[in-house]
Amino acid sequence: MAEKTLKYKRSLRQSLSALKTLTVMQIKEKMDVSYLRSVKKTIFHVVYTVLEFAVITAICFVLLWAAKLLGVFSLVHDIPVSVMVVVFTFMFTLSVVFTTIGLVQSLYLSKDNLVLLTLPATPSLVFLSKLLVYYFYELKRSFMFLIPLFFAFGLVKGYSIGFYFWALFLFVFISALPVLLGALLSMPALYVYQLFRKVKILQYTVITIALSAGIWLIYYVIGLIPNDINLVETWGTTYWQIQDFLNGFVEIFSIMAALTRLIVGKTIGLSYQIFTKDTALHLAILALTVVALVVLNFLLSKPLFYKMASKPFEYTKKMKIKAKKNVKVPVFFSAIKKEWLIRWRDNSIVSLIAQLVIIMPMAIELLNSIYAAMNTAYLGTQMTVGFNLLIVMLFMLSANISLASIYSRDGASSYLNKVQPSTYFQLLFSKLTPNMVFGLIGIAITTAMYANHSSLDAVSGTLFGVTAYLVYLAHMFWSAEMDIMNPQYEQYATFSQQTNNPNEGKSTILTFVISFLVAFITIFLSLEGARLAWIKVSALALVLAVLKLTTYILKIKVFYKEK
Amino acid sequence: MKKSVIIAIFLIYLGSIVAVNFFGLQMKLFEGTEYVTKIECTGVELEREQNNGVYPGYKENTPAYAFFFIGNGADNDVFSETDTTNTNVVKINYRVYPDNATNSKIELVYDKISTSGAVVVKEDTMEIVFLKSCGIDITLKAVDGSNVQTKIWIECI
Prior knowledge:
The complex is a heterodimer.
Chain A: H1 2-30, H2 39-70, H3 81-109, H4 112-116, H5 123-144, H6 146-157, H7 161-174, H8 176-198, H9 200-224, H10 235-252, H11 254-264, E1 266-268, E2 271-273, H12 279-309, H13 313-316, H14 331-345, H15 348-372, H16 378-398, H17 416-419, H18 424-430, H19 433-453, H20 458-485, H21 489-494, H22 502-525, H23 530-559
Antiparallel strand pairs in A: 1-2
Chain B: H1 3-23, E1 38-46, E2 55-59, E3 62-67, E4 89-97, E5 106-109, E6 119-122, E7 127-130, E8 135-142, E9 149-156
Parallel strand pairs in B: 3-9
Antiparallel strand pairs in B: 1-4, 2-3, 4-7, 5-8, 6-7, 8-9
């Protein structure tokens, strides 16, 4: 008996050690933990993280305090719990959606599964380690928004210090929910993904229907816009509409409301209480839900994970190859054709078209329909022009963020860029052509839609589009340049998706900085005169685009130089 | 696209609409005061989680709301004003018509002498704290000079 217990303890210790090793190994791939090698860097990282947390909490506090002061959500200058329910539900839903998409790749389609299963660990441990990696990532993301938001709520309401420890304790459980739900939802998501890959016509049909429904919805919403939008004047009616929405939302999403109340407690009598008679019950339900989801995942998702992970992908697909006559084209166009085929087959071109050619013009149409319903003064008109440029820039530049890893995504095949019978520039530039083409189509459509509403004349309107496109090109070359200078080939060789690519982070920051700068410069210069402002801004954008193209070419010459 | 980028773009999109609406509109000429025409009490909420809530009814054609008093176990069953364990607190929910009334503030009018030591009325939060089992006539009155008011009866039994 004692020997059996000893054996069991040894086996448990070995399993936990294997699980820890697997999880740490995968976390090192997914998140940058190189700072742990140096004490100085670790301290710097910790201080930076704490500062980041404090800044986000401060921003949330200011927003909530302003809403409380203005009485936006309550006649008695308070922030009702229903507001937190709405925000929490929205963020939770987004987390579930994004985690599901990530887990489909990580659990079933990742190249490292074959390697992980050869390690001395059971498939259950490998599966659990993958969920743990996403759990830690979700916990880290909670620290960057949701937890600061709840802390800010506590500060605004004047909660005691116990609330903050209680919220931190609860988020240990709450962060597991999107991961576990995502793992369960990843099964039907995988089947849909594989069905779409096999039956392309179905994919195109669903995408066409979804986009058509989206366009119809936008025009329906435009039809609902009242003739005169004046929030200040109609605040009485708007306030009650907000209240009706909040109350209705809490009624429909009662589970999320109960979860939110578990975190923030209740006002009873003259004081607020975190722990009420329902707290123990709700906490037990939450813990049991987490346990039940873990069990369900092991019963349902894990077998599918093992089946997909142990399937050799090279031999299962029956290739239907149709013989075609070889057509000789110039090297450059051959490279472009290859890139477009790759982007078409992995569907990245579909999301690019959706973002730049469909969603951006529709969003601008809706925005300007709302602006048209406002009786704006001169300042208001200038603001609408500036905001239109800002939002167009944000949509366009955010489509370039993925270009900051365009060359790294080749992973182990990246060496092919150096052995092709072509100049490096032609091969590397060809990867940027889809973004260039769809960016141009998107801005052309958007400018035409904007011109319907705008007070700008034809020349200024054209310069609006030209400015946006030139800045888009500059950011595109800038992002691609980052990937040339700091490639992440090793990460993409093992993981199909790198979630902590430093180049994509820098490109994201540049997206917001450049967008705000361009919009600000435009509004500032337009005080002199609209036509002159657009000429100056377009000239600046042209200089920037030419500069970034030059540095892009120079970086290729330096980093792809044969030694 | 990353989740954080989508959320940031969405917030900036909404913020632009609010910013133009607050700072960019033409000035409007003052067209006179819109007076309150009606005050409606939409309900009285008991701010505790015990099952027995507030029971609506009528007392001599006046809307009435009753709930059960939970005492502090002392002989006279009277709470002090600062006692935080008192759960006999109700909140008055109301609505003012029209929605665009120039001044929609209201005041609570009640007999302060006969209710002294029995209730505490908090006008800023629209709460009434019952220190003992009793009833109170409360009038919700508009302060914009329209003299519009509505009366309710709240009883703690």
